[in-house]
Amino acid sequence: MLELKRINVLFADDSEIYHLLFKAFLRGKEHFNLMHCAINGKFLVDYIFHSAVVPDVCVLDLHMPVLNGIDACQQIKRYFPHIILLGFTSSSDDREKEEMINAGAQRVFPKENLKELIDYLEKASFN
Questions:
Q1: What backbone phi and psi angles, to 5 degrees, belong to 32?
Q2: What's the pLDDT at 1?
Q3: Is the pTM of this model over 0.85?
Q4: How high is the mean pLDDT in each 10-residue block of the chain (127 residues)?
Q5: Burial of 40 (0-12, 13-18, 19+ CB in 10 A)
Q6: Would you call 112 helix, strand, or coil by DSSP?
Q7: Backbone dihedral region of 28: left (phi > 0), alpha (psi from -120 to 50 degrees) or beta?
Q8: Beta bridge partners of 32
Q9: 84 CB neighbour count, 10 Å cutoff
Q10: Which DSSP symbol is given to 81?
Q11: What is the pLDDT of residue 19?
């Protein structure tokens, strides 16, 4: 039987509610390992630098205190270019979404449709 590689995921959002929702959507999806949920971009970047395991994918909110998703994407891409970065926002400002893509995010998903993000993760190839 073919064994799926576990995908290591980090999540950053300043809203604890989205931490709970993200965890709930990943529950039961054994091929995902949610390594950590951070409350801002700085904590996420620090976690990556101090972790023994580098994540395969990071999901970042665009608007967070201390270090926003755009600046966090830039830092992560500079030192860990192989990590897949995905934006997650309630913003309807297309310029901000484009900034996040230019900073290194592969895609930006609306917070109103967390299922779309989870579906994308399930279909993505992390080989």
A1: -110, 135
A2: 46
A3: yes
A4: 76 96 90 95 98 96 96 97 95 93 96 90 73
A5: buried
A6: helix
A7: left
A8: 7
A9: 19
A10: T
A11: 95
* Amino acid at the residue 97: K
Q: Which residues contact 65 (CB under 8 A, 6 or more apart)?
A: 14, 40
Residue 14 token pair: 């300043």
- How high is the pLDDT of residue 81? 96
Please report the pLDDT score of residue 31 as a whole number: 86
The secondary structure element, H or E, covering residue 122 is helix 114-123
CB-based contact 11:37 (threshold 8 Å): yes
Going from the C-alpha of 32 to that of each of 4, 29, 52, 56, the distances in angstroms are 10, 6, 17, 10
Encoded tokens for 16: 């604890």
For 116, the 3-state DSSP assignment is helix
Between vectors from CA 68 to CA 67 and to CA 72, what angle results, nearest 5°? 75
| Whole-angstrom distance, CA of residue 112 vs CA of residue 90 | 7
With beta carbons less than 8 A apart as the criterion, state whether 87 and 114 touch: no
Half-sphere exposure of 109 (CA within 13 A, CB side): 18
